[in-house]
Structures are given as structure tokens and as C-alpha cells.
Amino acid sequence: MKKMILRLWLVNLIISIALYVSYRMVIAGIKPMDTTLLEKILYIIDVLLNLGFSIIYFAMMVLGSLTFFLNRIEKIKNNPLLSFLTFSGIPFVCVIFLAADVSMNICQYNESPLKTPLVFSIIYLLCTVTEFLMFRKKVKNS
Fold it and tell me: Could you tell me if 43 and 113 are in contact, meaning their C-beta atoms sit under 8 angstroms apart?
């Protein structure tokens, strides 16, 4: 069981790194507007803001993956709800927070800088839910 948790954690870490790299590539794909000085300054601010979001995003993914090891505790491993929270609790809270923020910003300003992190967080949440389902299947079989 310990090896399975370690393997799931390594898979999750690889997924986290892949999502982080793809997120950074999406950020790098943003093209600056070459018209005025103000638009160039706003572009620089946008890039710095996205870099900050990407660092927070990666930190949350690493923190979320470290909770996998709580499944080594029998009480948590045998309780499906607690086990789910160790796999997908932090990503789920992040998706709820980002979705609420994006919806408020879109209603207010018709734009939100957190749309891209929300999409990548949803992808990460789906990956952790898949890993949780695989884990529960192995726990039931053993």
C-alpha cells in the first residue's frame, strides 16, 4: 500500500509539473500590444501578474499532492470521504474559489485574469479525482 501511495504521488507530481509548464507556455504566448507606452506598461504588469499566479498555482499543486501521504493512516485510508479530501480537497477548494472570483470579475468587468488558472485547476482536479478512484479501487481489492 505504501508503494502505491508513493506511485500515485509521483504521478501527481509529474502531472503538476506538466500542467505548470503548459501554463507557463500559455502565459508566454500572450503577445504585447505595440501601440503606446501605456499599453506596453500594462502588458508588463499583466506578465508579472501571471507569473505570480503561476507560482501560487504550482505551490498549491505541490501542497495538494503532499496530502496523499495521509492515506498511510488506516483511519483515513478506510474512510472514503477523508481519503477523497486527501486527494482532491485542496484542488476542489481552489476551483471553487477561482470560479467564484472569475464569475464576479466577469460580471463586474467583463474580464478576469484568473480564467487561465481556473481552467488548469479544473484539469488538475479531474486528474486527482481519477487518481482517487484508482486508489479506492485498489483499497477495495486488497
Answer: no
